[in-house]
Amino acid sequence: MTAFELGVALNALTPRRLHRHSWLFITINLVIGNVIPLALGLWQQFRDPTATSIILILAALLIVLPLVHALSYRLHISGEDIVIYSGRLFKSVRHVPLANLHNVNLRRNVLHRWLAVAEVRLETAGSGGESEAVLRVLSLEDAQHLQRYLLSQQQSQSSPHHSALAQTEAQIPHTGDNLLPLPHGELIRLGLSTNQGLGISAFIFYVFIEFQDYDRMVAWIGGRLFDSLWLTEILSRWWIMALLALFVLWILNKLSAILFVYLGYSHFTLLDSGGERIQQQRGLLTQHSSHIRKTRIQVWRIQQNPSLRLFKRYRISIDTAVMDGGKGGERGISLLVPIAEQETIQSLLRHWQLPYFTQVQQLAARAWRRIFIAYVFKSSLYCGILALGLVGFSEKIPVQSAAWLWLALIPLQLIAAVRRAAFAGWHCEKGYFFYRDGWLWRHWHIIALKNIHAIALQHNYFDRRYRMASLILDSMGCSALNRPFAIRYLPQETAKILAKLLWQRQIKQSAKR
Length: 513
Known about the structure:
The protein is α+β, with helices and mostly antiparallel strands. It has 16 helices and 19 strands. About 45% of the residues lie in helices and about 25% in strands. Keywords: Membrane, Transmembrane, Transmembrane helix.
């Protein structure tokens, strides 16, 4: 499909509006994102008719002005660009080269499916944490035309070995086997191992505390617990109440996390077309459909937090040229494999022709000391902040509790430092760099050497004293949340040799280009 054929299919050879129901989805988005938080915040401060009038006026402005701006959207296929016109008073014209598109992400909730429309996000490598353009909304047929165009362009650039497959898949959707079915048990484990919905849980807890008589509630709980608890001989009642509040908040968080996981990852489908393109579909009420070429993936990250270790599960996230930017999966594919057993992870890595090394090069012999010192420094800082908070919070809670907490953490930090230093390691072979780190929170990183765009060798005062160095490897997919590789506490000579080898390889690759 050419750009002209795309323009004919979208009826966009001349500037056109979005779908006729766009105003409805724009209004819903504005109300949920702006008006409801504003109304709740002002209503808490001013509960009178005047405040109600102010809220209504501000709500009207927050809805009408952005709505007028959004309804001015025009879509135009001009040459090899998608041109987007927007604005009334302040007009904007944005050119998005079709050749730079990496992904066309479709988002469809129940209302979208009922009206046969889709929210379309056009994503490129250079747009940072935001989508290059958000078309809210197009008809489902027009959205699929955009996906077919992108698919045909990507597959026309692939190797001749896949040319026959490209001609077929450009016309019909891929219907291969699901590489990762997620039954209900896996969804529950995924919910228990994440903190999705933490903000909602905290808000519910705050509302409950706000509208209840706090003193009476404390007295009621204390009268039934404290007289029979031997724990009161060790901890004060305020500490017990704080621990009880955290436990209730944790229960709310896990319940909301399971709900969010069911809404976000039900009907999970992971498809692969000949190792060239990975497609992910998920969602119960709001469905997300996205795909990416394997060559666009910069870094593969295998992760395991304490909850996943308890369930003997792992997950795989990826850094791509289209970065998510912390938007919770609104951009492209960020969490590729939400949860899977070790055998499934290794099977998927073999399917994608990725190495997994069990024998690694260890860090420097005294790396555990550096890690332990860093842990002690951080705990001292946090306990100091806690002590200052206790001084301002209540005189009933002794400030010395923060000091006792700091002392209790020291042996745990020593164990964590030794275990982490023993687990961490690296390996470089078969065109890939493999690095693992962590103890309670473990992570494995796999990056193709051809995807390394910057190499830095760093050593501060403490590194020089311990004869260590840090090797920083940067790729195009790194963002504020997924920082570059930082292989710390390497022996100084090893770090220099490794950096020199990687630099020489990078120079050779640049010369070939």
